[in-house]
Amino acid sequence: MKNNIKYLVTAALPYANNYVHIGHVAGAILPPDIYVRFRKLKNDDVIFICGSDEHGTAIEMASILEKVTPQEIIDRYHFSNKKAFEDLGIRFDIFSRTSSEIHKVTASEFFLNLYNKKLLYQKTEKQLYSEKEKRFLADRFISGTCPVCGFEEARGDECENCGSNLSPLELINPRSKITGDTPVEKETTHFYIPLADYQEKLSEWLSEKKNWKANVINYCKGWLKSGLRDRAVTRDLDWGVKVPVKGNDGKVIYVWFEAPIGYISMTKEFFIGKNEPEKWKEYWSGKDSRLIHFIGKDNIVFHSIIFPSMLMAHGGFNLPYNIPANEFLNIGGRKFSKTRGNAILLRDIVQKFNPDVVRYTIASIFPENKDSEFTWEDLQAKNNNELASILGNFVNRTVVFAKSKFGNVIPEFPDSGSHMKENGILEHIKSKADAVADNIENFRFRDALSEAMDAVRSANKYFNDSEPWKLIKDDKEKCSAVINTCLEICHSLAILFEPFLPFTSDKILHILDKDTSGLKWENIGKRVLKSGTALGENSILFPQIEDSTVKELNLKYNIGIDPGNSPVNVEDTNNMNVISIEDFHKVKLRVAKVLKCEIVPGSKKLLRLKLKVGDTEKQIVSGISEHYKPEEIEGRLIIIADNLKPSKIMGIDSEGMLLAAKKGGKLKIVTVDGDIEDGAEVN
RNA sequence: GCCGGGAUAGCUCAGCUGGUUAGAGCGUCGGAAUCAUAAUCCGCAGGUCGGGGGUUCAAGUCCCUCUCCCGGUACCA
To answer: Is the CB of A528 under 7 A from strand B?
Structure first.
């Protein structure tokens, strides 16, 4: 049933200084894709907007550190992320970027609108300025000695040693992180938006939002309660949208102000591409239009407080209808972290697995109410026990049956006879679809998915209870009705699962030799197939995922290594924690002689080493076979951590760890300078 | 320090304004079936709902307190 509402759905703009990981996907990308796909199946008027957020200090910093242009940085991540989203089946109507011309114009106009209405004011402040680089230094470009604890590598915004929040001006001996020179204090003038002016209107507006998620409302209340502070909307930086007011050279619009305007400019761009350059206004200003922002919880303030304030200040735009923010997806009990090497990048995971398996796994653990936990074991279990066993198997057993017993065509559904059960199961699938729809409309995607899976369970039950393998022997007509119905169910499932598993949905249609003309939500539970149609080639929808794959991935992503037991917990290679000599002595390093070395069969990079350490022999498993052949290591002296807690890697005991130096894909094992007896202590 | 959120079966999580024997999926175990990727279906078992105290006829659900985890934010400088 089509309604008159226009849905303008946005996904949080990924920042183009990194590859997106599955945490982003779980928080802000996949939920809207499911939502939008569902709306489209219902023939609702919906558009799905996203793109890269490409300005700001972090990108400029990255470009300086890598000695490339900012353009190279953003191109790298923009195109890679775009491709990764496509591979996952995320179907944006547009995935653009904030470096586009239309965005710069739109953001400038927005800024000028506020400026001309005198809704911004200017204020002069002291900031640190590097005379050598001829630029003001952003907080994160500065390090210095912490005035609180004396830590010498404190950052401009906070001290990682004592946790104090700092302003760069407080640092003792501040220096530029780029050149190392000492900056000076210099005055600079910036535009500010007085957010407090919008506090009352915001409170009023938010108090009407009865159906928003509690976590979002709570968050907003907290901010409003403590009072909104004015925020600078410009800053001294090269990389960004220039401030469109004379006398502001070297200043750009602050990225927090400019980026959300990207939603607007990208909508414009989308309709320009469709030759309807004015139509974007219907979505942003129309009476029956609903703006829905899908974001992660880190973005709640911007979307529920700051951007709405901006929209109020500007006027003429709808405020967000809903902001179904998700919490965070963790891995191994910890947050995704680049430095720990445990971030699972979208580009990697879609290469390794069927994207629908990734979609299913993530959707089933969406952090809708609280942070949730991703494990590879989970992905394997969801694939093997749910997708393969329940869904894949239902389709397969039905199709294989039709092929072998009905000559590879869709058998007839006879007019005669009673078909209570046959019609009943289709009605039941339909009622499940209603439950799925209700859940999706209310942003309860996990529940929606589990309802959909329930529909397949009942389909399997129908198959079992009908016992077609018996009917084929003594009541072929009834059997025909059953298998026909099961194939119809397959078609219904293709629709029902399309929002979650679009690739699988497609495959099922192929197997049924059906085009997408019937792919409408209203067709769920209806009989739409033509009997006599030859079935397409059947394929296994979800091949099993082996244990060895899971172990390999756990190793690769450093999962399962107990952080509490490691004596030295290195948080960040740039900023190493200081440890005592006692801490160091906890690690017993010894020289070991490699007696025998062999590749661990089935592994990607594991070697099994038999070692002689003084009087004892031990075995370790090490992930270095991409760098060393077994014969290169045999007979050599290496250094091992001797008293490491033993562990099993791919079922093989490992009683230590060899030392190796690693940088940028290169790896060299640590050895000794000359000959010495194995077992010798290293310190 | 202060504010907010979290701690529920082996695992991942639901439990709205307090109300009959605390739920689901997966896993485990038992049974049925054999068309199907040994895939299905049915059933049993599993929790003193982080600890302690309180309010109430009744608390996972409200109040107090403690422990641990995660966010946000202030000051001392």
So the answer is: no
pLDDT beyond 60 at A562: no
Specify the nucleotide whose C1' lies closest to residue A330 (CA). B70
| pLDDT over 70, % of chain A | 87
Task: Kindly state which CATH superfamily the domain A386-523 is placed in.
Answer: Isoleucyl-tRNA Synthetase; Domain 1 (1.10.730.10)
Instruction: Judge if A386-523 and A574-682 fold alike in CATH terms.
Output: no
What is the pLDDT averaged over residues A632-638? Answer: 78
CA distance A639 to A677: 12
Report how far residue A561's alpha carbon sits from residue A550's, in angstroms, rounded to the nearest whole number. 15
Tokens of A673: 């300078």
ipTM: 0.91
Provide the CATH number for the domain formed by A574-682 in this structure: 2.40.50.140
Query: From residues 300-329 of A, which are strand B contacts by CB within 7 A?
Result: 328
Nucleic chain B: which protein residues 161-180 of A have CB below 7 A from it?
164-165, 170
Which residue's CA lies closest to nucleotide B38 at its C1' atom?
A389
pLDDT at A582: 43
| Domain A6-100+255-349 coded CATH 3.40.50.620 | yes
Please tell me the least confidently modeled range out of A55-69, A373-387, A559-573.
A559-573
Q: What pTM was estimated for this model as a whole?
A: 0.82
Instruction: Estimate in Å the CA A373 to C1' B7 gap, whole number.
Output: 15
Residue A589's pLDDT is 75
Axis-axis angle for helices A57-66, A70-87 (nearest 10): 110
Residues A44-70: b if buried by 16+ CB within 10 A, e if exposed: bbbbbbbbbbbbbbbbbbbbbeeeeeb
DSSP 3-state assignment of A658? strand
Checking each nucleotide's C1' against the CA of A218, the nearest proves to be B4
pLDDT value of position A603? 58
Tokens of A478: 């009834």
Nearest to A635 by CA among A606, A604, A678: A678
A239 CA to B29 C1' in angstroms comes to 63
Average pLDDT rounded to a whole number, residues A207-236: 84
**pLDDT tens readout for residues A70-107:** 999 999 999 999 999 999 999 999 999 999 999 999 99
With CA atoms as reference, report the closest residue to A84 among A17, A9, A20, A10: A20
Q: Provide, in whole angstroms, the distance separating residue A596's CA from nucleotide B48's C1'.
A: 55
CATH architecture of A114-252: Beta Complex (2.170)
Q: Which nucleotide is nearest to A301 (CA to C1')?
A: B72
Domain boundaries, chain A: 6-100+255-349, 114-252, 386-523, 574-682
Q: Beta carbon of A564 within 7 Å of strand B?
A: no
**Lowest-confidence region among A43-47, A194-198, A401-405, A648-652:** A648-652
Nucleotide at minimal C1' distance from the A375 CA: B12
Q: Which A residues between 205 and 244 have a beta carbon under 7 A from any strand B atom?
A: 215, 218-219, 222, 225
**Chain B footprint bases within 7 A of protein beta carbons:** 3-7, 11-15, 24-27, 33-37, 39-42, 70-77
Query: What is the band of A649 on the pLDDT scale with cuts at 50, 70, 90?
Result: low
Residue carrying structure tokens 């995971």: A349
